[in-house]
Every structure is written in C-alpha cells, then in structure tokens.
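During the reporting period the student researcher (J.K.) took over the structure-prediction task from the postdoctoral fellow and processed the backlog of single-chain submissions. One of the processed entries is reproduced below for the supervisory committee.
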Amino acid sequence: MLREQLQQYVGEVGGLLKGLLAVQAERGFLPSSIEAAAADVFNVSRAEVKGVISFYADLRMEPAKKVTLRVCEAEACQAVGGRALKARVCQSLGVDITGSPAGADIEIEPVYCLGLCSVGPAVQVNDNLLGRADEKSVVQLVTEALGKGT
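J.K. obtained the following structure tokens:
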C-alpha cells in the first residue's frame, strides 16, 4: 500500500516530497519503512530520502502532539520581542522552551519565518497563525486547542 501511494508521484516535479506529504497526510506521520520504500519507488538512495525528511520541518517520523506551538525566531520577529514572548508563553504553559516534558500534549517547534514579518512577533498554534502575538492570546489559543482535541 505504501509503495502504491508513492508510485502516483513518480515522474512529477517534486514527486518525492509530494509522495511523502501524501503518506503523512493519510497516516499523520511517516512510518519507519518510508525510507526504504521511497528509495525503491523513486530510484534514489535512502540517504536522499532521509535528507528530504530531515530538511522539511513539516515532515515527521512520529505522531504529532495535540498542540504544536511555533514562535517565529527570524530577525524581524526577534526585533519586536519574539524570543521573550516564547519564554513567557512556555513559562505560562509549564513547558520547557526547547520542547515539552515527556507525555505532554504540547510540542514546541522552532520556525524561522511564518510569513508575517510585518506583524511580528508571529506565532502558529497548530494551523492557526497569529500576528502581533502577545502572551495572553497565545496561551488562550493553546488552551483552546488542548480543549478541542485538535
């Protein structure tokens, strides 16, 4: 089934990435067998497949936590307090700034641009983007996401 799903993208520009994204969209993450299957289907080395998976932050080899929090760490957001915001939000939520305690439902991921440079600091909570973010609004979004089960 995995090989058949990947096979649809052979010959397309960006086919390997498209195939990986399709598998992840269906399963929620990439299974451990993906490297060998994709290498075989696309006729590339496992190292090339692993390189694509490790390069793209949105590709994951494990199921996502209930809430993924991304605070932009690019220069534009840093200039308007992005790092301090991240520290305050993590403290309010009781999670480590570099990640979360084992078993927690919140995952902290570094990101270096969310495309909201003119309205920084920018934050993403799951699929929700927030410009001019402040501690209260970010904590509220995370709390709502935890309650909804998204």
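The committee noted the following: The chain has a mean pLDDT of 91.
J.K. will present the remaining backlog at the next meeting.
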